């Protein structure tokens, strides 16, 4: 748990708050250094819990306040207790452009796909339903469902969590490590295909040789 000062606790009158990048860049959040420190500490703990390491072997958190401030991602933060108030969970969502191959080998381009990017409940509270209440609150606020989301590098615990609470189990592993459950595609209209959607449909020569400058 991350203890927070009475000053920061005043921002946490509700148990759950949602912070996005633009809120972090303006008052009052950008005037309280502890906001960034608390986010960084929760992100660091999440990184440790998931075993995320950089090339130098140090923890490589997915959630860092300076990155959040420069993004359009949203961070849900759950607090607990009165005095001292403590932060006990985080859940970060954002949009990603993904290429995804479904079970039939059809490629889907998922543009601005809403994705779960980080999710952590303090060890002392895990397996007590805290993760579920945080996740449910996020779904309601985002007006979405668990199967409509992509999941960045989900840990075995998150895979178990989604199977237990949302009966999501089947997915096709991808090189980009994002998981999109098969049910996502079952509920969607047939995808718009390109000539390159599957190996079988791919022409032997390039479709056209126009040059593109992007
Ligand atoms: N081992 C296996 N499954 C686990 C688990 C563990 N240590 N902890 C939670 N789960 C899964 C199980 O399905 C569990 O149900 P069970 O206890 O009947 O087996 C279910 O989650 C519990 O749900 P809930 O209590 O609502 O979730 P939670 O508060 O434990 O939060 C996580 C879920 C994933 C956020 C939490 O376990 C966590 O922070 N894990 C470490 C970080 C992590 O892996 N994050 C995922 C990011 S990719």
Name the average pLDDT. 87
Task: Supply the helix-strand structural class.
Answer: alpha+beta
**What fraction of the residues are assigned to beta strands by DSSP?**
15-25%
**What would the principal axes of the Cα set say about the shape?**
globular
Uncertain spans = 194-214
Whole-number radius of gyration?
20 Å
Enumerate how many helices there are, as a single number: 7
Subunit organisation of the chains: single chain
What is the share of helical residues?
25-40%
Largest β-sheet summary: 7 strands, mixed
The strand count comes to 7
Strand-and-helix sequence, N→C?
A: EHEHHHEEEHEHEH
End-to-end gap:
46 Å
How is this structure best described in words?
The structure is a single chain. With 214 residues, the chain is α+β, with helices and mostly antiparallel strands. 29% of the residues lie in helices and 24% in strands. It has seven helices and seven strands; from the N terminus they run βαβαααβββαβαβα. Strands 1, 2, 3, 4, 5, 6 and 7 form a seven-stranded mixed beta sheet that branches. The longest helix is centred in the N-terminal third of the chain and has 18 residues, at 33-50. It is globular, with a radius of gyration of 20 Å. Residues 194-214 have low confidence and may be disordered. Bound molecules: coenzyme A. Residues 46, 49-50, 119-121, 125-132, 153-155, 157-158, 160-161, 164 line the site of coenzyme A. Coenzyme A (COA) is lined by residues 46, 49-50, 119-121, 125-132, 153-155, 157-158, 160-161, 164.
């Amino acid at each position: 748990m991350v203890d927070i000062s009475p000053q920061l606790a005043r921002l946490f009158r509700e148990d759950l708050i949602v912070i996005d990048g633009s809120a972090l860049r303006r008052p009052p959040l950008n005037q309280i250094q502890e906001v960034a420190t608390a986010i960084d500490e929760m992100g660091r703990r999440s990184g440790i819990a998931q075993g995320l390491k950089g090339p130098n072997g140090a923890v490589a958190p997915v959630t860092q306040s300076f990155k959040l401030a420069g993004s359009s991602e949203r961070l849900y933060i759950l607090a607990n207790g009165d005095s001292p108030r403590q932060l006990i969970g985080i859940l970060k969502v954002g949009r990603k452009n993904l290429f995804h191959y479904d079970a039939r080998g059809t490629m889907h381009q998922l543009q601005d796909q809403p994705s779960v990017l980080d999710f952590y409940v303090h060890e002392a509270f895990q397996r007590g339903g805290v993760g579920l209440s945080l996740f449910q609150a996020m779904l309601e606020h985002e007006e979405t469902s668990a199967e409509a989301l992509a999941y960045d590098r989900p840990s075995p615990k998150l895979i178990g969590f989604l199977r237990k609470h949302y009966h999501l189990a089947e997915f096709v592993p991808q090189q980009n490590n994002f998981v999109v459950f098969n049910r996502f595609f079952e509920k969607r209209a047939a995808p718009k295909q390109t000539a390159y959607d599957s190996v079988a449909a791919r022409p032997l020569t390039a479709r056209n040789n126009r040059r593109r400058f992007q």
